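Q: Here's a chain of 109 amino acids. Please give me its 3D structure as C-alpha cells.
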Amino acid sequence: MNVQVTTGLQQDVKTYLEGITGVYVKIEPIPNKGLMVKTPSNPTVMVNNPWFNNLVDEVIMIFSGQENPDLLVFDDENSPHFFTFGFKFLAVFQILNPVLLQHGVSSIL
C-alpha cells in the first residue's frame, strides 16, 4: 500500500525516524499476515543514531497486528534495515487505521 504524500506525512516520517529505539531482533521481520505501508520521505531525512547513519528517502511501516509497527529502511547500498521505534499516535495512523482493520490487522488507536 502506498500513502498519499502530504506535508503532515513528511513530518510524521521524520518523527518515526527520530524515534528509532533499536534494531528489530526477531528472526522474521516481515510477518506472514499484516500490512506494509510505504511512505516516501521527500526531501530525504538524515538519520544519525547508534543503529543507522544514512540518508533515508522512504520508510516502510510493517503492521503485523501482533505488536507495535516496525520500520524498514534502506541504506545507500539498498541493504534493508529493520527497526523498532517510539510508537506515537500520529496523524497518519488515523488515516491508516480503517485500512488496517480491512486487512485483518487489529486497531492501532
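Q: Can you summarize the key feature?
A: Strands lie at 20-23, 35-49, 52-63, 70-74, 80-85.
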